[in-house]
Amino acid sequence: MFSNTVRTKATIIRKLALFVMPGFLALSSTLISCTPNSNNTNTANEPKADTAATKTVSFKTKVLRMGYQSSGDLVRVRGVLEKRLEPLGVKVEWAQFAQGPQLMEAMNVGKIDVGSVGETPPIFAQAAGARIVYLAGRRITPTSGKGSAIVVPKNSPIKTLAEIKGQKVVFQKGSASHYFIIQALKEVGLKYSDIQVLSMPNVEARGAFIQGTIPVWVTGDPHLALVEKLHGARVLRDATNIGTPGGYYVGTREFARDNPELVRVILEEIDKNGQWAEANRKEVAKLIAPVLKIDLPIQEVISERANYRLKGITPELMKAQQNVADLFYTEKILPKKIDVQEALLTPKEYAAITPPTLISEK
Predict the structure, then answer these.
(1) CB under 8 Å to 333, separation ≥6 — which residues?
(2) What local confidence, expressed as pLDDT, does residue 142 receive?
(3) Could you tell me which of 162, 208, 153, 212 has the C-alpha nearest to residue 185?
């Protein structure tokens, strides 16, 4: 049984390589850390948890393994999950990854239980046979799209998006940038095949862009804000009104089904943290800036255009996600059509894991 499981996982990983290599399978190089949360747990003005309702809850798992991306995670920095869960007997462990595709790979091979990614990584993971489920979506705000953009160096001769035809365009395949560039190209009458695609994680691409070896880069904050403010990068198109359903918190199917009460508490605390963040964006910047080693004024820009709160999984949201999956199939990037319904829990299971504050958002 054990050997069959190992062979199955190895087969899934090989399938993933077909979709998003290079830059997807190097787990050893992209798993940057797996450490307890920072002790910085500033919770001033934070909505209070209903501790009376959770004191008697006994969770099946004793360790929650959370994945986050190298762009930072306010939930981790503030320690809100530790504050809520450790008194209830659940330890929180964190693991850092370069971007969403690497996080999804780690989830697929059993390294983490829950993580936050953009709209694209779950689709590629599902295409490779990963047993993942959507737990909650991220609410989209009017400024959300400002945090992602297609950029060129300040002295680039490229002045418009249409002029990137034939150019080398760098982004992480299987990430939200992958979907973004396809949609943006369609707006100016170009096809995905009209550009030369080079897959590279943001943490690697930033240095190459600064050195001038990348003519066009599709990226997001904090990398975007840094190259804009410090190196004069010019934005050809940001992701405002790009038509994305937004990002998600995803988890393994087994974890979600075995721990519905725990998932509910996790989502509740993440959304409460988001509520605090959107009301205290300057405080968010002060917390994140030293973690990412970013100057405070730049981090303030990042925090102002970030979205922090969650929304429930609804038919409307999944219809929009299906449109994303269909686009990748139509563009012949995925070799088979993906049904996102296969990565969903039952309505009864969603009722069990979804806090009331998430239910009304479509």
Answers:
(1) 19, 178, 192
(2) 72
(3) 162
Long-range contacts of 291-296 (CB under 8 A, 24+ apart): 291/38, 291/72, 291/77, 292/71, 292/72, 292/222, 294/222, 294/225, 294/226
Q: Residue 66 in 3-state DSSP? A: strand
CA-closest candidate to residue 250, choices 344, 146, 168, 141: 344
| pLDDT number for residue 359 | 67
Place of tokens 């490779």: 128
Evaluate whether 107 touches 225 at the Cβ level (below 8 Å): no
Is 114 within 8 Å of 64 (Cβ atoms)?
yes
- Which residues of the chain fall short of a pLDDT of 70? 1-58, 359-362
HSE (CB half, 13 Å, CA atoms) of 16? Answer: 31
Is residue 288 within 8 A of residue 252, CB to CB? The reply is no
Helix, strand or coil, per DSSP, at residue 193: helix
Q: Beta-carbon neighbour count of residue 356 at 10 Å?
A: 8
